């Protein structure tokens, strides 16, 4: 399944770029909002840093024109990190 998704991703890479940036940035901003709604603590700073690092690494990979496989993997990592942060913050 992964190889099929990657193949489709490589074929439509230029069309997916705006969608990927919007998806990653929106999910990252929701994660940042949820983090900032918590009480102030060291954990909050670490979570917010992780959220920002994940989103910015993904965005930088697109701007640096890295290979499609690397960009795809970074998209998955960014979405997973931000989703986990959101789920853990809401529990």
From TrEMBL:
Alphabetically ordered keywords of this record: Membrane, Transmembrane, Transmembrane helix
PROSITE patterns cross-referenced by the UniProt entry: PROKAR_LIPOPROTEIN (PS51257)
Protein name: Uncharacterized protein
Top-level taxon: Bacteria
Transmembrane regions: 12-37, 43-63, 70-90
Keyword Transmembrane set for record: yes
């Amino acid at each position: 399944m992964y190889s099929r998704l990657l193949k489709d991703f490589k074929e439509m890479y230029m069309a997916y770029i705006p969608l990927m940036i919007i998806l990653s940035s929106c999910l990252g901003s929701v994660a940042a909002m949820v983090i900032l709604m918590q009480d102030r603590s060291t954990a909050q700073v670490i979570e917010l840093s992780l959220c920002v690092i994940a989103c910015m690494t993904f965005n930088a990979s697109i701007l640096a024109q890295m290979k499609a496989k690397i960009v795809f993997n970074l998209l998955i990592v960014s979405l997973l990190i931000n989703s986990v942060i959101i789920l853990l913050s809401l529990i």
